[in-house]
Every structure is written in structure tokens, then in C-alpha cells.
Design a protein that fits this description.
The complex is a heterodimer of chains A (about 250) and B (about 220). Chain A is about 35% helix and about 20% strand. Chain A is of the alpha+beta class and about 250 residues long. Chain B has one domain (about 5-205). Classes of the chains: A alpha+beta (about 250), B mainly alpha (about 220). Chain A: Its cofactor is FMN.
Chain lengths: ~250, ~220
């Protein structure tokens, strides 16, 4: 190391220079890629919603979305209505409801707006809702498709940073598919949610009315987080489904 | 003589065996523990580190003569962090699916002690080409161990490899499960990563006695 680079003046100048150069570089990258990234995020939301209602390209074992190229067209074809349940009880239609940021809505507490997408496929009507909760390390979220009796027709789970091989398995087919057919209401019609339990003596998940699915070993806290998310967030939609029935 | 002189070739081959960053220098244990529960994550992490190490070592080597020694660690940290963020952003824009898999590792790459260790120990004092080779060599040595650990943990813990059920179906009792074999769920938990790394260290040192330190 030469003496020149040891002086305080040089050190400070170098630090300032480095911050300016690196800062400019990062800002430039972020700004020039921003448009593309947000398009990707929007397309992913469409893919997720379509996945939940069964519009996907799943093979035998893996979860595969429709391609990003086809997503906007299929979204327009299958999703017939996008509505928002306002906090004051009003229901408004909004064809950009799928872009509502659930994280921001959750932070609003009682003022929260609830988006809901109505999909039509093979003569069947799906009600798809986005929900969000906490896993072990960070956020978990999901798109749940239900019929008018709040029976789950399809589910897509995702997470930000659950442990690979354990909690991260919530986005695997073997877990997500377990939810298909599960009732969210108990036999009396009250909202109960779906618990994720160990030793429920039903590992093949044949009993769809027990409000339980089999847990992933080693992912207890992620599983509890998913169950809490289902219970807390889906409950908010119960009044809508009650109204739907009384129509 | 091929592309590499013997001395240069040693830069690549050494970290793969007798100077492995994980088993000999015991660096980068944190990420080896965190992400080796499945093979796929191990491979992704190995490739990401390979890239960051190669480029990072070159950048540090390029500016090695102008870095003030008092703040060199901060400079190194800034270089890694900037590199990793740029890669993450580019992936998010052009390979969104892949970036979702990778995003978990971004933070882990920045804190990976192998990267900082090689910047500090090698790139600060060596030329471009040699630094690049050193980076690649160490990243490969790291990646090999990661993949070995990932292979055994996923195979014995979940009965799968890269998500494929190579041992049969544990619930429907096909394949080896028909004979009463059970997955060892303990393999998926973090302590087993250390135990597997320990076994690798044991095997390596019993094959090469020169690696055993004197009392």
C-alpha cells in the first residue's frame, strides 16, 4: 500500500467517489429496468389468479402457470368480473382490482378494501381472493378460488423467504392440491377456516369436511402461518358469500 | 502448456480439494447450512456464488491499488452488494421466474464469508487473471461441497432429488418404501448440514493425512 492512499483526505474522497459511482450505477439500473419489472409483477398476479381457478399448464407433479404471453388474454377470457368490497359495505367494480396491493390494504386495518375476482370456466363460477399472512421468516400469500358455498376449488400459495425444502414446500403441488375440495365452513355454516395439522390421521386427505389438511414435516410455523392467513383473511369475505346465497 | 500455466491451474484445483473453503478453511458454513435442504437450491446458490466471486475478485483486483486500506472492508462490501443487486434487478426484468428462486439467496451471497475472505486474502494483492481464477476456483470448491450436502440431505430427508421421487412414493408405499424404509426428517433440519459437512471433513482428512493439524 502506498502512502498516498493512507491519508484521511484521500480516504474521504475515495468514499465519496465510491458512493456516487455505485449509487448512480444502481439508480440507473433500477430506473431503466423498472417498467419491465412491474410488468412482470402484474403478469404474475394474473397467472396466480388463473392458476387458482384451474387455468394452468400443470403436468403430473409440478405447478406450471400459463405463459406470460398468454396470461393477459386468458385473464380477460376467464375473469368475468373484478370487484372490490369497500370497508363501508359498498361493492364496486374495478377492472384493475388485481393490482391492489394486499400488503398496503392490510396495513389500513378497518379501512381495508377487499378485492375479489369472479371467474367462469366450463359453466362453473369461481370466486378468487388474494390473501396474505406471515410465515416463519417473512410474508406468505395466496390466491384461493372458492365456489359459492366457500368450498375451496383451487389454491396457489407463495412465500418470500421460507426455508428451502421445508416451509418453501407450501408452493408445491402436494401441499396446494390438498386444499382442493376443503370446506371453509363447518357443518353448521359458521366460518372455521382450514387448519394445517400433524397427526390428523388423514394423510391422504380423504375427509374434505374436517377443516384440516396434513402439515409438512419440519414446517410447523410456516404451516401455522398459512392456516392463520386462511382463517383471518378469508373470514372477511364471509358476508359477501352470505349475501350471494340470500340473493 | 494449455490455457493455464501450472501455477494458475493450481489456483483452481487447490480449493477443490486440499484447500477447500468449506472443509479446510471452514468459511461459508452459514449458507451451507441454510440452503442445502434440497439439491436445486444448492445448485442455484453454487452458480450465483460462482458468478459473484469471479466478477467481484476481478473488480477488487482492478481497483486494488487505489483502495484506501482503512476502509477496504467497506469498499469490498459495497462491491459485492452492488454486484448482487444489479444481478438481482436484471434477473427480475429478464428472467422473472428464476429471480424468484434466487431472491432468497441475494442476502446470503452478500454475507458469504468466502467472498469477503477471498477479496481480502487474494484479490487485494494479485493481478486480474489470477484473481479471476482464484475466485472461480474457490466458488467451485464451495459449490461442490454444497451440492454433495444438498444431494444427501434431499435424498435421505425427503426421498427426492431435484423434486423427483427417486425412491418411490412414501404415502402410497411404492419403491423402497414398500420394504419399510422411512424418510429421515432430521436430515432436513439445519444441524444435519453441519454433521454431513463434518463427515466430509472426516473422509477428506482420513484420505490425506497431511491435512490433519499437529497438536
Amino acid at each position: 500500500m502506498s502512502k498516498r492512499t493512507d491519508s484521511n483526505g484521500y480516504t474521504i474522497l475515495f468514499a465519496i467517489g465510491m458512493v456516487v459511482v455505485v449509487g448512480a450505477l444502481l439508480a440507473f439500473t433500477a430506473a431503466s429496468l423498472k417498467g419491465k419489472i412491474s410488468t412482470n409483477v402484474e403478469l404474475e398476479k394474473q397467472q396466480n389468479i388463473l392458476y387458482a381457478m384451474g387455468v394452468n399448464e400443470n403436468n403430473e407433479t409440478s405447478a406450471i402457470f400459463v405463459s406470460t404471453k398468454d396470461a393477459p388474454e386468458l385473464f380477460g377470457k376467464y375473469i368475468t368480473k373484478q370487484i372490490v368490497l369497500e370497508s363501508n359495505g359498498d361493492i364496486t367494480e374495478d377492472d384493475k382490482a388485481y393490482l391492489i396491493d394486499i400488503k398496503k390494504e392490510k396495513a389500513k386495518g378497518a379501512e381495508r378494501r377487499l378485492p375479489l375476482f369472479v371467474g367462469e370456466k366450463d359453466g362453473k363460477t369461481f370466486y378468487i381472493v388474494p390473501i396474505r399472512g406471515k410465515g416463519l421468516w417473512d410474508a406468505v400469500w395466496a390466491y384461493i378460488a372458492m365456489d359459492e358455498n366457500m368450498v375451496i376449488q383451487g389454491a396457489y400459495f407463495d412465500h418470500k423467504a421460507e426455508t428451502a425444502g421445508l416451509g418453501a414446500n407450501i408452493k408445491e403441488r402436494f401441499f396446494m392440491d390438498d386444499f382442493i375440495g376443503e370446506h371453509l365452513l363447518d357443518s353448521k355454516g359458521n366460518f372455521k377456516g382450514v387448519a394445517i395439522t400433524k397427526s390428523n390421521a388423514d394423510p391422504l386427505n380423504k375427509d374434505k369436511k374436517d377443516n384440516e389438511v396434513d402439515a409438512i414435516a419440519g414446517a410447523t410455523i410456516t404451516g401455522n402461518g398459512v392456516a392463520d392467513m386462511l382463517r383471518n383473511d378469508l373470514k372477511l369475505y364471509k358476508p359477501y358469500f352470505d349475501k350471494l346465497k340470500n340473493k | 502448456m494449455g490455457l493455464l500455466s501450472r501455477k494458475d491451474a493450481k489456483l483452481i484445483s487447490d480449493p477443490l480439494a486440499d484447500n477447500n473453503p468449506i472443509t479446510i478453511q471452514v468459511l461459508g458454513i452459514c449458507s451451507a447450512l441454510a440452503i442445502t435442504a434440497e439439491l436445486k437450491a444448492s445448485i442455484v446458490m453454487a452458480v450465483s456464488v460462482l458468478f459473484v466471486m469471479g466478477v467481484g475478485n476481478v473488480v477488487i483486483s482492478l481497483i486494488r491499488n487505489i483502495i484506501p486500506s482503512k476502509i477496504r472492508i467497506i469498499v469490498q462490501l459495497t462491491v459485492v452488494a452492488a454486484l448482487v443487486i444489479i444481478v438481482d434487478q436484471v434477473l427480475k426484468a429478464f428472467a422473472y421466474e428464476l429471480s424468484k428462486t434466487l431472491s432468497v439467496f441475494v442476502g446470503l451471497i452478500i454475507t458469504n464469508c468466502i467472498i469477503m475472505g477471498r477479496f481480502e486474502a487474494f484479490a487485494l494483492g494479485n493481478g486480474l487473471w489470477r484473481s479471476f481464477l482464484d475466485g472461480i476456483g474457490n466458488a467451485l470448491g464451495y459449490g461442490v461441497i454444497l451440492i454433495i450436502v444438498g444431494f444427501f440431505r434431499e435424498l435421505l430427508g425427503a426421498g427426492t432429488l431435484l423434486g423427483y421421487k427417486v425412491l418411490g412414493d412414501p404415502i402410497e408405499k411404492t419403491g423402497v418404501y414398500a420394504f419399510g424404509y422411512e424418510n429421515n426428517g432430521f436430515m432436513l433440519l439445519a444441524p444435519m448440514a453441519l454433521i454431513v459437512v463434518g463427515i466430509i471433513i472426516w473422509v477428506q482428512r482420513s484420505r490425506n493425512k497431511a491435512l490433519i493439524e499437529d497438536e
